[in-house]
Design goal:
Rieske Iron-sulfur Protein, Naphthalene 1,2-dioxygenase Alpha Subunit, Chain A, domain 1, seven-stranded antiparallel β-sheet, 23% strand, alpha+beta, 17 strands
Length: 420
Amino acid sequence: MSTIIPIRTHRELLESREAGHGMPGELFGRQDVFETDVELFFHKLWILVGVTADVPEPGDVHTVDIGKASVIILRDDDENIRAYRNVCRHRGSRIMKQPGKATVGMLVCPYHQWTYDLDGSLRHTQHMGKDFDPGCHSLIPVHVKTVGAHIFVCLADEPPTDFAKLETVMAPRFVPYDLTRTKVAYEMEIIENGNWKLVMENNRECYHCSATHPELVNSFLAEDFGFCPDGQSEDALKAYEDYVERNAATQAAWEKDGWISERFESVDEGVQTNFRTQRLVIAGANESQTIDTKVASTKLFGNLQRRDLGDVHMWGHHSWTHVMSDHAVIAYILPLAPDKTLVRTVWLVHEDAVEGIDYDLKKLTEVWVATTNQDAELVANTHKGTQDPAYRPGPFSQFTEAPLDEFSRWYDARLKEHGV
C-alpha cells in the first residue's frame, strides 16, 4: 500500500528552507506558487517593462503582457510616456491584440471601434445614445515612471513608495549618459525553460561564470563576485591582492573625477523595491563588455569624452542593466509558466550612432548574446533537477552566492507581508 504524502502549503514550503540553502523544488514547479508569484512580484511591485527607445516618437506603442494582465506603453503627442491597461472600456476586448511594438494615430478597439486618444480619453463611439458620457470611459491608467532609459510600471492601485529611493540613487548615476537620447541597436527575446526565480538566481551569482561564460569573463572581473582564499595557490592569492588594489585605485579615481561609483544596496527583507547598483571595473581596457574590452561604438553616450568609465550595473528583482560609455545592455524577465520565463534583452546606442560606421553590431552584441543563450541552458538544466524526486536544496557558497540567500529572504518576507 502506497503512502500518501500530504501537499505542503506555500508557507510550509517557505518555512522548510534552511538558512543559507536553496529553495524547495515545489517553489519552482507548482502552478499555485507560480500564480501567487505573478500576482505579488509582478502585479503589486514596480517592474521594468521596456526602455524609452521602444517608443521614440508620438504614437509609438509598446504592449507588454504580464500574466493575465496586459499593458500599453506609449508616447503621447506631448512626448510624455504613458501606460494604460490593454482593456477596452466597452466589453473588455484587447485593444492591441499582440505584445510588441506598433505605431498608431489613436488607439482603436478592433471589436466595436471604440477609439481612444493617446491621453487615454474616449474620443469616438457609435450607437451609444445621447445619454452616454464618454468622459466616464477613458482607458484605465497604469502607474509609470522613467529612470534613465528604463520604463517602470506598477499595476497596483497603491504602488510601493520606496521606489523613490531607486529614483534618487540611480537618476544621478545615469544623467551623464543621457540615456533618453538612445536607440535600440538590437533586441533579443528568448524563452528559458525554467522558473523565473531560477533565472534571477543564476543572474545574481557568478560562481558559474568562469566555467560557462568564456565571452563574458573577458570583461568581467571574477573577483567582483566573491573569492574564497581557502586552498588557493600563492599565485591566485597574489592575483586577488592585485585585483583589490586595482579596484580600489580605479574607484577612487572615478569618485575624484565626479563619477558616482560606490556600491548601494536596498535588498533586505524590509524593502519592497529591491535593487542594487555599483560602478564595476571592466577587465583589460576598462571600456566596454566586448571581447577585447574596448568600445563597440565610437559614438559615446551623451557628450561623454571618456571611454574608461567601467560598467554602471543595476539589478532589481526581475531585471539587470549594464551601462558603459558606448552602449547599454538592459534585460528584464516576465514569467510565463512555472517552467517558462521570457527574457528580453535590449542593446542601446547613441541615437545618432550609425551601424557599420560608428559601431559593429557583432562586436556590440556577441558577449551578451552568447551569455544569454548559455544561461538559458543552465537554467533549464537546473529547473529539471529541482523537479527530480531526489533533489534536496544544497548550501550556497557564502563567498559567491550570498545574494541568493538575500533574495530568498526577501522573497519570503514579501509573501509573509501579504499573508502567504
